[in-house]
Sequence to fold (252 residues):
Amino acid sequence: MIKRADQTEVLGVRIDNVTMVEAVERIRGFVETSKPHLVVTCNPEMVMTAYTDQLLAEILRRADLVVPDGIGVVWASRILQRPLAERVPGIELMEAVLAAAAQSGWRVFLLGAEPGVAELAGQKMQTAFPGLEIVGYHHGFFDKNSEPQVLELIRRAEPQILLIALGVPRQEKWAAAHLGSLKVPVAIGVGGSFNVWAGVDKRAPLWMRRIHLEWLYRIVRQPWRFRRALAIPQFMAAVIWERLFRGESVRG
Fold:
């Protein structure tokens, strides 16, 4: 067997070469150490944002675990001849972590989405994962003036898992700025996952997910995403350019 590389670099962003099972085991290890860790679910849009956003690029470089959320990232790794093992969808990673939390007794805090959404999502999570302990909620519509109250709420709850649904790159930047003071073992940016669990949004049908067209389903249901989706052809062009014109000169 050929030994799999621990990480793969895609357009300057290092992605951990892990399967879903391995990602959950890494997170289990993070919880057991009790030290703060940031987990990032990376897709092509995030990679392209990091191209021009140096703060996000540095956060990705320092993150404790960066998983390949989008199929585009997996495709790019293969084009660049540094293949990742598999896609690790962010919402499915969150669900796997919730299942582990219910089994292991980890405390979970939900931060983000519109008022009331996290609470509704949490209720459905607790039904789906019996024994899951959700120790707090707060919506994502807070400003700098109310931020100290949000931070204190999280500190008092003492979660071991902090799920942050503030959107990219706000959730990553917020976690990087405050994770050290919060002393939460694991923070994961989960994007719009609370909306899906609360029933506000729907995931693509399974057949579309199987052929990797979930991104198209989102655009059809939410046309405002179209401008953001323009990052996908830009990402593909950048990957092909790197493969054709940089080749072996690019470090793996």
Q: What stands out?
A: The radius of gyration is 18 Å. The CA atoms of residues 50 and 56 lie 5 Å apart.
